Amino acid sequence: DLCICFQRTVPDDNIDLLLENLEQPNGLSLQSENCGGSDRRSVLHVEHRNLNPETELKKYFGARAVLGDQRPRHRNRQFQSSNWMTAPKDSWPRHSRPGLSMTLLQSQDGIQYFTFEHSRDYQQLQFKFLDAVESMDPNNIVALLQLNPYHIDSLLQLSDVFRIQENQEMARDLIERALYSLECAFHPLFSLTSGTSRLDYLRPENRAFYLALYKHMIFLEKRGCPRTALEYCKLILSLDPDSDPLCMLLIIDFLMLRTREYQALLQLYQDWEEHRNLSQLPNFAFSTALSHFHLSKQEDMDPEESDKQRQKADLMLQNALIMFPGVLMPLLDLCSVQPDAAVTSHSFFGPKSQIGQSLALAELTALYVGRTYNVWREAGVMLWLEQSVREVLRRVDAKDPLVEDYQNKRKQRYQSAPRNIHRHVLLCEIKEAISSLPLVRNDPQPHLKTVPVGASNESTLSLFFRSLLPNFNLQGGPRQEDDMEVARAGHELNQEVNRLMVAMRDMLANIRFQEPPREDNPYRDEEEWD
């Protein structure tokens, strides 16, 4: 009767069967049944003003510091009133409809189902884009963009190039331009804030919007705007809350912790636990405990209520550590904390807790630790964690029946993970989580047409080049049965991949983007690519 459980094991070499089984309802589908719209509304409600990072920055620094003497210039003024996600910049080319539109497919039970559509000319642009990708020369994507400055997939792909080159400002600017063009194509009835507008991720035309929103959210969080990033997280989740194609439930708790919205996080957990089994995800198991702990420390809380919150926090953290013992040692390592001998010498938290967990569970724990370790670094939080670890060891030594019960559940539930979790891990850029991905060569429904699902030990850079090199295969051939052969082949393969990555980094570092003749693009701004 669990909505969240992991799929039965299938032979590792049968990748097609694995992918097929991952889509079955008894996998970790994170899909809901009989989920009331009122519950979703409280969690997914989005406000237009919170989609603008200036709203958050003004709270931190004041309007004068954020806006200065900025005045909108006449050229793009006509577009500014109708766009909520990004405002056009003077450095951008003039916007003309690139052949992208949105259609209302149907309305049912108060929910509107939309889809983006490509005109015939835009479809031809897509073919040119694929040719540019296959040429392995980013200059060809640049040339395509200079002639078609609002082609979405080109903007997304070139943003990745600039991000790899550590030009974060240009990478972010290209994502914002993509969002601006996508928003200009919205159907009049499509709403960012109602929570009732849906986009099917399985339609290829819709995926670029999901990707642009996700990348924009990550840039906002890194820029120091976690509240705005949370708003975009809720927006992405609202577009398809049942399937959650990018598995936003793996990051929403982190953003709520970053913005200190502890009550909202606990409300989300309470509303969705029954039908989504959030407690089976390591991030919610630990983050809800941390929320109760922070609430117990609030000065304006009644002492009796504070004690209740602390007791809940203690019990929930202990249970999380018993359910997911593989989280502790990597977490302490990233927090630069050396555990005492009583912990390191105990088998429960020792190397066995890492080696013994499945790849699917390792993927989830590595993702959580790599993303949230900073919220555990606070001295008071670390002291609380230490006390909880000691109590867990006492319960383990006392043969607490919950320990064996959770061990059995780990074996039953976390045998494989569904595609939406893999998509999330590929986008997260957390190398420890990416290295835990199973060996899967191709995803029939990748998050971008040109980007296949990745493989273990594959860096973000190699994932990008897999999108440029369709025949690039990290596995180098079928998996062999003999363990020694697999280990030896894997070692040799890693050396080859490392050499390739060094060469690719050198190539990217030396890229000089060439501009086509100006007469080919009369609308190009003087300073566009400067």
Automatic annotation (TrEMBL):
Matching Gene3D superfamilies:
Tetratricopeptide repeat domain
User: Which protein are we looking at?
Assistant: Transcription factor 25 (basic helix-loop-helix)
SUPFAM superfamilies assigned: TPR-like
Matching entries from InterPro entries are given as: TCF25/Rqc1, TPR-like_helical_dom_sf
Q: Which domain of life is it from?
A: Eukaryota
* Species this protein is from: Echeneis naucrates (Live sharksucker)
Q: Which GO CC annotations does the UniProt entry carry?
A: RQC complex
What's a Pfam family in this record? Answer: Tcf25
